[in-house]
Amino acid sequence: MIYRKAVFKDVEAVHKLVNAYADKGLMLSRSRNVLYETLRDLLVAEHDGVIIGVGSLHLTWDELAEIRALAVAPHTIKSGIGRNIVETLVGEAKQLGVKTLFTLTYQPEFFAKLGFEEVSKDLLPHKVWKECINCAKFPNCDETAMMRKI
Ligand SMILES: CC(C)(COP(=O)(O)OP(=O)(O)OC[C@H]1O[C@@H](n2cnc3c(N)ncnc32)[C@H](O)[C@@H]1OP(=O)(O)O)[C@@H](O)C(=O)NCCC(=O)NCCS
């Protein structure tokens, strides 16, 4: 298994992986446009040349970053890849001087296992909601906000 930063040739596989879950309402969808624009945020897990996992570290504000777009291929669920992706992103965040990570998720139990704690959405800076206006669910966000100090 290789965990590495994404490059352009990964975008189609990431798009397919994320949007298959999004179609089932398990995560928010990502357009190709967004994936291209945020390519440097993305980390992929690759096995035998196939992309089987993805996660994103998005810098938000002073010493604050978000874990986003986390997904692993259905046949690999609960084999530790999600944890490895998050912990690799945590390492990257630490190098950048991030002190607090947050996520908005439908999988709070998974993130709780990784040391994230549920917080009120009010604790997040207003800037976080800038991109939410593009979400079909806005303004009725039903994701759970979670934070982890690193
Ligand atoms: C959520 C997801 C990324 C987790 O990745 P994963 O590789 O399956 O998780 P891991 O195997 O690394 O699990 C780490 C720990 O969390 C637990 N866990 C994983 N998914 C869980 C869930 N949905 N509920 C409760 N616990 C969960 C595992 O059992 C493991 O616990 P352990 O440390 O006691 O063994 C993966 O299930 C997935 O891609 N789901 C579909 C897309 C999705 O929901 N993405 C999140 C959008 S917010």
Question: What does it look like?
Answer:
The protein is an alpha+beta fold and 150 residues long. It is built from four helices and seven strands. A seven-stranded mixed sheet has the order 1-2-3-4-5-7-6, with helices on both faces. 27% of the residues lie in helices and 30% in strands. The chain has helices spanning 11-22, 32-37, 81-96, 108-113, and strands at residues 2-5, 42-47, 50-61, 64-72, 100-105, 117-118, 144-149. The protein has a single domain (2-149), classed as 3-Layer(aba) Sandwich (Aminopeptidase), CATH 3.40.630.30. The protein is globular, with a radius of gyration of 14 Å. The model has no long low-confidence stretch (mean pLDDT 95). It binds coenzyme A (COA). Coenzyme A binds next to strand 4, helix 3 and helix 4.
Short description, anyone?
The chain is of the alpha+beta class and 150 residues long. The protein has one domain: Gcn5-related N-acetyltransferase (GNAT) (Aminopeptidase, 3-Layer(aba) Sandwich). It is built from 4 helices and 7 strands; from the N terminus they run βααβββαβαββ.
